[in-house]
Amino acid sequence: TGTGGTGEALSTSGAVTTSTGATTEASQPPTRLQHYADGKCATPLWCFENGQISQGAPVRIFAQECFTGVTPPFRVSRIGYWIAATRGTPSDPVIELRGFDGTSPGASPLVPPAGLGGGDVSPGYHEVALDWAVMTDSFCIGLAGGELAQGTALGVAVDDVVPPLHQSFYRVDGVPPCNSAGQFLDTAVTQPTPTAQWCIDVDIVPL
After folding, report:
1. Helix, strand, or coil here: 202?
2. Residue 113's closest CA among 83, 86, 145?
3. Ramachandran region of residue 40, left (φ > 0), alpha (ψ -120 to 50) or beta?
4. What is the pTM for the complete model shown?
5. pLDDT tens for residues 64-100?
6. Three-state secondary-structure class, residue 84
7. pLDDT in tens, 148-186
8. How far is Cα 33 from Cα 41, in angstroms, rounded to an integer?
9. 4-7 long-range contacts, Cβ below 8 Å, gap at least 24?
């Protein structure tokens, strides 16, 4: 695990409460789950135009990083993430928690997505408090934002490390070839530019 960067003060703009019962947060410090390499989160993984990665194409993108081997039950108490770039103000930005079957994130979020404000998806590092209970030993979490019709896009950052299979996924809803037909694609398989791990980290607390 790593620090995930210094970033901004903890925001509650995306906080939702879905867990029930007492937690052990007072006696159990949170555990950080993180795959990405610190200090390497400067490049977006998104659709881009004219061969220039800095020129994002309008599209809605879903970025999901999956974590396995976690002892349930637990609560996801915080998410941290790096935004490398945006096209305009990304439309309808949200945080999503999805299940994981070992090969792909679930088709639908496990809980209602947590809405974000424009300031939560500006370039830089952000943290958002969450309260989501997870009862299985694996899950995927990430962001979605941008919209073809609105001409906006969200450039979530990746590091410079090629991910293993079944860890880093993306879905794009835009104009072909920037359209994955509603399916999540495994970055390690499709090898987009850049092929790297999402800069997304989370804290979990045992229930």
Report:
1. strand
2. 145
3. alpha
4. 0.87
5. 999 999 999 999 999 999 999 999 999 999 999 999 9
6. strand
7. 999 999 999 999 999 999 999 999 999 999 999 999 999
8. 16
9. 4/32, 4/34, 4/38, 4/80, 4/125, 4/127, 4/201, 5/38, 5/41, 5/80, 5/82, 5/125, 6/125, 7/80, 7/124, 7/125, 7/126, 7/127
